[in-house]
């Protein structure tokens, strides 16, 4: 690991200022991603701003504004504590399941909500500094495009990058229509709708998201919903636990009598950002909650998918995963 | 190793003393579990194989702390030095570290606590698991600099007053290891897991996460899911699960292995 200066800040303002003053400074939250990448020489900050002493870890009900009745989770809240918070378990079990599907108990005890949003891809070409990677070193090419791309994207990729976003938590947040609150050194707070937080690679794969340097994720707001009893997070992976998703699905259904009023669907492991399955959602609105309709919705979504050389299996896998996740959501969200 | 000699004749004075400490019967609060553990330790010790186990799990743990710290390895020139004051196994420590130093390297290289192991150094194996402020975490992805005012418990801190922690004893009873490299991490992880279950924390395989938090009785599937952050290259998983089950249920779980007896030995 390269030498770096360790700075600990105690206020959002001082953290944002330290960051703004140094383009090569990075935030240290749980450290589970940034330290790993620094050991690999992928990330090379010359300063780490430790934000662990900021008071940003509370979970609290939102009592006013557009998201009234929803919940706010702190940017520094630990993944494990967020997942197990009684209000989250009761009202947003989709988020609980998604967080608990990721990483391991030890990592979830360390990982923070803000860090989870800003974790980088697990693409092996990104991790291996002797390989070309436009995300790590713009202009060097994409090693995975013609390389081994079994784990890579089937939606929204570009010739310059086929990497996927690795988070499970973010897939649930996408389906939950969350809003990311960020604050910069000017003290100004921005609210970023979750769908606009992460981006597709296009010609700028080095930018994972729309956060600007110097900004800190202070909280994530989740609006109230009526589908707590009908949601499910399904994760399909190479081993039973402690592995990144091949495909994952966050599914939620609000019923209107015997028909579907609205469905919320987001996919993980398939794109550079959590992939909201809007096509499938539109199809399901007003339909009966039958296996046949679930299958048709899934197929409709997957029509837009474009496989690479080694990941064609994700199209059928994704289709079946959507059907299974919707079915389990209808069954009360139990495995 | 398996001879007819009585084990006492093979024990050094050190070992006899340790043996006495481990098996002393004059404690007045013996739980069933402790009783079972004692009988077990006696059994394997009498059979000879236990001497090795005692050396590995007893002697090193208890006697290891008697060694003087090796000052020779103190770095002279620290780049980006950070002072960290924290507690390790209940003892206050204050030292200057390079900002890059992980908690794992600090424990192993600076504090002579080599129980925590470096398997991958990238968060992928769990061998470095320690307990910080009551939570199991990976010391390879924790900067020592960020540990100020925290309290760290390592495998060396689990035994109390010469008594193995029940989880350590249970790993011994169930042979929850082969090479032993993952074991300190497995045991620290399992100890913290007991607390998580008591607090009613759920997992990805919990059927209904909306239930109100209350102590959870872990199924085998739950134990496997919640221990998935600790990889065992030797594949001792079935025995690890048995060891955890025994402590979690506070009821004896049958050993799935036995020492060969005299009769079987003569038949070979
Ligand atoms: C072996 C392994 C397996 C894993 N498996 C999974 C998995 O299956 N599913 C999954 O979802 N995740 C998985 N993870 C990833 C894990 O969830 C992330 O590493 C973690 O969420 C990152 O959070 P952190 O607080 O540790 O971030 P850090 O490492 O501290 O930071 C990560 C990045 O975010 C930035 N950052 C941190 N906090 C903020 C903030 N408040 N505002 C702005 N920027 C910030 C940092 O500067 C850094 O660039 C795995 C990780 C490991 C090591
Ligand atoms: S050494 Fe820390 S997880 Fe492998
Ligand atoms: S006992 Fe050898 S790695 Fe687990």
TrEMBL record, chain A:
Pfam families associated with the record: CO_deh_flav_C, FAD_binding_5
Record GO terms (molecular function): FAD binding; oxidoreductase activity
Domain FAD-binding PCMH-type per the UniProt entry, residue ranges: 1-227
SMART domains for this protein: CO_deh_flav_C
Stored InterPro entries: CO_DH_flav_C (IPR005107), CO_DH_flav_C_dom_sf (IPR036683), Diverse_Substr_Oxidored (IPR051312), FAD-bd_PCMH (IPR016166), FAD-bd_PCMH-like_sf (IPR036318), FAD-bd_PCMH_sub1 (IPR016167), FAD-bd_PCMH_sub2 (IPR016169), Mopterin_DH_FAD-bd (IPR002346)
UniProt keyword terms in alphabetical order: FAD, Flavoprotein
PANTHER family named among the record's database cross-references: OXIDOREDUCTASE, XANTHINE DEHYDROGENASE SUBUNIT C-RELATED
Identification of the protein by name: FAD-binding molybdopterin dehydrogenase
TrEMBL record, chain B:
Coiled-coil ranges (or none): none
Source taxon at top rank: Bacteria
Keywords: 2Fe-2S, Iron, Iron-sulfur, Metal-binding, Oxidoreductase
Domain 2Fe-2S ferredoxin-type, chain residue ranges per copy: 82-158
Lineage: Bacteria, Pseudomonadati, Bacteroidota, Chitinophagia, Chitinophagales
Protein name per its UniProtKB record: 2Fe-2S ferredoxin-type domain-containing protein
Example of a GO MF term: oxidoreductase activity, acting on the aldehyde or oxo group of donors
Pfam families according to UniProt: Fer2, Fer2_2
């Amino acid at each position: 690991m390269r030498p770096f200066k360790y700075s600990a800040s105690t206020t959002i303002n001082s953290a944002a200022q330290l960051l703004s003053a140094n383009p090569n400074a990075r935030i240290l939250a749980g450290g589970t991603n940034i330290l790993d990448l620094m050991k690999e020489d992928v990330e090379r900050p010359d300063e780490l701003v430790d934000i662990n002493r900021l008071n940003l870890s509370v979970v609290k009900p939102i009592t006013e504004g557009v998201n009234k009745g929803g919940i706010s989770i702190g940017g520094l809240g630990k993944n494990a504590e967020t997942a197990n918070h009684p209000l989250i378990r009761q009202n947003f079990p989709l988020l609980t399941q998604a967080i608990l599907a990721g990483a391991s108990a030890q990592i979830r005890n360390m990982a923070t909500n803000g860090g989870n949003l800003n974790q980088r891809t697990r693409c092996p070409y990104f991790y291996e500094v002797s390989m070309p990677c436009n995300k790590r070193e713009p202009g060097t090419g994409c090693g995975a495009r013609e390389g081994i791309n079994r784990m890579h994207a089937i939606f929204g990729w570009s010739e310059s990058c086929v990497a996927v976003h690795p988070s499970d938590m973010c897939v649930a947040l996408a389906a939950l229509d969350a809003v990311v609150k960020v604050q910069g050194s000017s003290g100004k707070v921005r609210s970023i709708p979750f769908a606009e937080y992460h981006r597709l690679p296009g010609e700028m794969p080095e930018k994972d998201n729309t956060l600007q340097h110097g900004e800190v994720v202070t909280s994530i707001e989740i609006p109230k919903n009526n589908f707590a009893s009908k949601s499910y997070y399904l994760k399909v992976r190479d081993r039973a636990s402690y592995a990144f998703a091949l495909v994952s699905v966050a599914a939620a259904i609000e019923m209107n009598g015997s028909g579907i009023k609205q469905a919320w669907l987001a996919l993980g492991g398939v794109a550079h950002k959590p992939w909201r399955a809007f096509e499938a959602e539109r199809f399901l609105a007003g339909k009966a909650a039958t296996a046949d309709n679930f299958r048709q919705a899934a197929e409709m979504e997957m029509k837009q998918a474009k496989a690479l050389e080694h990941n064609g299996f994700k199209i059928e896998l994704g289709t079946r995963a959507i059907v299974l996740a919707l079915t389990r959501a209808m069954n009360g969200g139990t495995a | 190793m398996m001879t007819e000699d009585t084990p006492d004749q093979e024990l050094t004075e050190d070992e006899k003393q340790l043996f006495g400490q481990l098996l002393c019967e004059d404690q007045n609060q013996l739980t069933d579990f402790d009783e079972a553990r004692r009988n077990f330790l006696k059994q394997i010790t009498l059979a000879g194989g236990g001497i090795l186990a005692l050396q590995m799990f007893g002697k090193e743990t208890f006697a290891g702390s008697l060694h003087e710290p090796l000052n020779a390895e103190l770095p002279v020139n620290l780049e980006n030095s950070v002072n960290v004051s924290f507690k390790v196994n209940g003892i206050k420590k204050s030292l200057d570290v390079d900002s890059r130093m992980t908690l794992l390297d600090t424990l192993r290289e600076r504090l002579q606590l080599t129980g925590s192991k470096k398997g991958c150094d990238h968060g992928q194996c769990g061998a470095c698991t320690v307990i910080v402020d009551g939570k199991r975490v990976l010391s390879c992805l924790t900067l020592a600099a960020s540990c100020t005012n925290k309290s760290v418990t390592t495998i060396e801190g689990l035994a109390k007053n010469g008594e193995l922690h029940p989880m350590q004893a249970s790993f011994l009873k169930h042979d929850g290891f082969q090479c032993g490299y993952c074991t300190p991490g497995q045991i620290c992880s399992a100890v913290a897991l007991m607390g998580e279950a008591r607090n009613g924390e759920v997992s990805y395989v919990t059927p209904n996460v909306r239930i109100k938090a209350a102590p959870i009785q872990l199924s085998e599937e739950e134990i496997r899911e919640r221990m998935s952050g600790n990889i065992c290259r030797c594949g001792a998983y079935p025995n690890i699960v048995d060891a955890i089950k025994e402590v979690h249920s506070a009821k004896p779980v049958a050993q799935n292995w036995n020492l060969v007896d005299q009769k079987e030995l003569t038949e070979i």
